[in-house]
Automatic annotation (TrEMBL):
This is Gfo/Idh/MocA family oxidoreductase. It comes from Alicyclobacillus fastidiosus. InterPro entries: Gfo/Idh/MocA-like_OxRdtase_N, Gfo/Idh/MocA_Oxidoreductases, GFO_IDH_MocA-like_dom, NAD(P)-bd_dom_sf. Residues 132-253 form the GFO/IDH/MocA-like oxidoreductase domain. Residues 5-122 form the Gfo/Idh/MocA-like oxidoreductase N-terminal domain. Pfam families: GFO_IDH_MocA, GFO_IDH_MocA_C3. Signal peptide: none annotated. PANTHER family: BILIVERDIN REDUCTASE A.
Length: 343
């Protein structure tokens, strides 16, 4: 059994989830904590009782330890430096989303990963929920026929404060990548083009655009329509969005929390009827994996052991990142943007 020796980069609150995960694995051990603020790393080590060396520089940490896996839990603008440094040093990398702070950064990270021969996998924890897996399975097995469109509504009004309030594109850049990635999972398709209208509605407490409508064309001929706002007061959706997937033989509805429901054409109804009869059923939830971050990390470790790309390997996740930056480009230019220019 391969022993994974982990250097954790970024010792903010998010790293607790990752460290909790490592501590329950027999084949993984933390060998270093790295943070530009040494006091943050020391505080984390003290809180968790970790007797490991502390570093402010990743290169020094990798040179001084036998780390072969890096957890990148830093801010997006730091991802490129952390990931490329680790890959070039011969380490695999598991990192927080998004891949990078720009599309150029994401492309460079992908290129370095390919040359290095090491794996770089991205945390997309919202793929790992039993309900969305039920939706994916139903679509994959043709429960509603050929998919024509996916619709996702995301309306919440969290008052975070801090850096999000000052971001230029808080909704799309910081949050919508989850929903965009979920659309790719559900449909099994990749984006071809996008038109996006971004705006900041009255009453918004964000400096940047906190609302957006995006229309993506997918490579299977379907359309994905996203409507979202991060400053919507009243009638909130779930964090997973409110979904409607329409196909040639029916529709799937999922509110992001309850069991998904499928309504399909009754095979005994007559095609000539003005309104054909339908039957409604709950989708069977068969997936038994763990949910959230731990489910995604399980898949990443399994992929390393089986010497294959993880489901969220950078070679695949680049398409979700491209959806984000292409949508932002469309909003800025007021035109449809083709994804071949991004991924």
């Amino acid at each position: 059994m391969t022993q994974h020796k982990v250097a954790v980069v970024g010792c903010g609150s998010m790293s607790n989830t990752w460290l909790d995960y490592v501590q329950q694995r027999d084949d993984a051990t933390v060998v270093a904590l790295v943070d530009i603020f040494e006091e943050s790393a020391r505080a984390m080590a003290d809180r968790r009782g970790l007797d490991v060396p502390i570093f402010t520089d990743l290169s020094q940490a990798l040179a001084a330890t036998e780390a072969n896996l890096v957890f990148d839990i830093t801010i997006p603008d730091s991802h490129k430096q952390v990931v490329t440094t680790a890959l070039k040093a011969g380490c695999h990398v598991f990192g927080e989303k998004p891949m990078g702070g720009s599309m150029a950064d994401a492309r460079e990270m992908l290129d370095v990963a390919k040359v290095s021969g090491k794996r770089y996998s991205v945390m997309q924890n919202r793929r790992y929920l039993k309900q969305i897996r039920a939706v994916r399975t139903a679509v994959e097995h043709g429960a509603i026929g050929q998919v024509g469109a996916l619709y996702a509504d995301f309306f919440l009004g969290p008052h975070f404060g801090g850096f999000r309030d000052a971001m230029e594109n808080p909704l799309i850049l910081d949050m919508a990548i989850h929903t965009f990635d979920q659309a790719r999972l559900i449909s099994g398709a990749n984006p071809v083009s996008v038109y996006c209208q971004e705006f900041n509605p009255p009453g918004s407490w964000y400096q940047g655009n906190a609302s957006a409508i995006c229309i993506f064309e997918m490579n299977d001929g379907s359309v994905f329509c996203y409507r979202g706002s991060w400053c919507a007061e009243g009638f909130p959706t779930s964090w997973e969005s409110d979904w409607r997937i329409t196909g040639s033989q029916g529709t799937i509805r999922w509110d992001g929390s309850a069991i998904p429901v499928c309504e399909v054409v009754d095979v005994d109804s007559e095609p000539a009827e003005l309104l054909r009869r339908h039957r409604q059923v709950e989708l069977p939830v068969m997936w038994r994996g763990r949910e959230g971050h731990w489910g995604c990390l399980d898949e990443m470790f399994d992929a390393l052991g089986e010497q294959r790309p993880a489901e969220t390997d950078c070679t695949d996740n680049i398409y979700s990142v491209a959806m984000v930056f292409a949508a932002i480009e469309s909003a800025k230019t007021g035109r449809k943007v083709y994804l071949q220019d991004f991924a």
